[in-house]
Amino acid sequence: MTVDRNALKKWEKVREFALGLPGAAEEFPWGESVAKVNKKVFVFLGVDDGSHPLGVTVKLRDDTAHAHALAFPGAEPAGYGLGKAGWVRVPLEEKGAPAAEVLCDWVEESYRVIAPKRLIAELDAD
Length: 126
Hints:
This is MmcQ/YjbR family DNA-binding protein. This protein is α+β, with helices and mostly antiparallel strands. The chain has helices spanning 5-19, 63-70, 100-114, 117-125, and strands at 24-27, 33-37, 40-46, 55-59, 76-77, 87-91. The chain has one domain (5-118): Aspartate Aminotransferase, domain 1, CATH 3.90.1150. Strands 1-2-3-4-6-5 form a 6-stranded antiparallel beta sheet, covered by helices on one side.
């Protein structure tokens, strides 16, 4: 399976943005990349080695953002029961996939749901 260059660029931008948020750290549980804050995952980044389609999974509590994310081609509530808690998996290789800027907005929203108040205050101060 070849990696879609455009999707990979988006994925790299999203990863860089996520890891740039206050207190964010990358870990590799289950062999896939996740960004955590305060030991809690705020975005699942999956793998970039071409073994699985590129995508990101974010937690969207805002109904409008949640509905918007699900409107993209191939987007779906996350598996393992996470969808019930507002997690959405958004594929990056589908035609009409969201722009990196939109994905970064969703990552920030997901971060705000998970991060402690002091780190959100730090983010807002920047």
